Amino acid sequence: MDELREKVFRANLDLVKHGLVIFTWGNVSSIDRRRGLVAIKPSGVSYESLKPEDIVVIDLEGNIVEGRLKPSSDTPTHLVLYKAFAGIGGVVHTHSVYATAWAQAGRDIPCIGTTHADYFSDDIPCTRSMTQQEIEGAYEEETGHVIAERFKGLNPEYIPGVLVANHGPFAWGKDATGAVHNAVVMEQVARMAYLACGINPSLSMNPHLITKHFYRKHGANAYYGNS
Questions:
Q1: Catalytic: which of 32, 54, 108, 118?
Q2: I need a labelling partner for 42 at 20 to 30 A (CA). Which of 63, 85, 95, 176 fits?
Q3: Which of 76, 77, 57 lies closest to 67 in space, CA to CA?
Q4: Taking a C-beta distance cutoff of 8 angstroms, is the pair 43, 76 a contact?
């Protein structure tokens, strides 16, 4: 598991590099689907002092397999997402400013530009507010269930992120690096949408342009890039 732990370590440092976190306000995990094991940042450890060996390896029930520290308090949310979305390999949670502002407002981030449409095939959805029972029960696990509920009828691989109402963003991808990349994009399009909606609150976008931009980078007939 050393390779997986190293990748998750590097991905967590990338959150700092890209300005998505301060203090300990974020975490990245990645899953080895074949082994059914997840590597995740430990709880409350600063990024300045984080080391590869600090990354905690757990099974899909949350039992520690490798590591001397407690896993992130958000671990149950990550595990629910891995179980609900079979095609993802990495999950990121941050409190990045603009995406969190949309979450606190309880608003989807509207798809009103081609930058957004290059990565997300539709609006980035915001969950419903959690109930008292969900909050006072297994809160972090219920957070995952509320996200999964919001994605009924949506493709999580085409919309690789969500806003948890009053809380903040989660993003995912094929691996930890891809999840961080999508988290960075989400923060940027959240900022762009905030500014654009301030200029013109009645903005919309031609759905054909959304489809064009998304599928030129994704799907069987994608032609953007050289990979």
A1: 118
A2: 85
A3: 57
A4: no
At 88-137, the pLDDT tens digits run 999 999 999 999 999 999 999 999 999 999 999 999 999 999 999 999 99
In 10 A of CB 218, how many CB atoms? 15
Provide the pLDDT for residue 23. 94
pTM: 0.95
* Range 119-151 burial, b when 16+ CB lie within 10 A, else e: bbbbbbbbbeebeeeeeeeeeebbbbbbbbebb
Q: What is the average pLDDT across 209-222? A: 89
Reference 85, options 136, 6, 155; nearest CA is 155
Q: Taking the domains of the chain in order of start, what are their residue ranges?
A: 2-215
Closest-CA residue to 8 (of 37, 35, 39, 32): 39
Catalytic one of 2, 59, 139, 224: 224
Catalytic residue flag (residue 224): yes
Rounded-to-integer distance, Cα 88 and Cα 92, Å: 11
Spatial distance between the Cα atoms of 209 and 174, rounded to a whole number of angstroms: 25
Strands (E) located in the chain: 26-32, 37-40, 56-59, 64-66, 90-94, 161-164, 168-173
- Four-point Cα dihedral 111, 90, 71, 98, nearest 10: -20
Give the pLDDT score at 223.
84
Active site residue 158: no
Q: What is the CATH number of domain 2-215?
A: 3.40.225.10
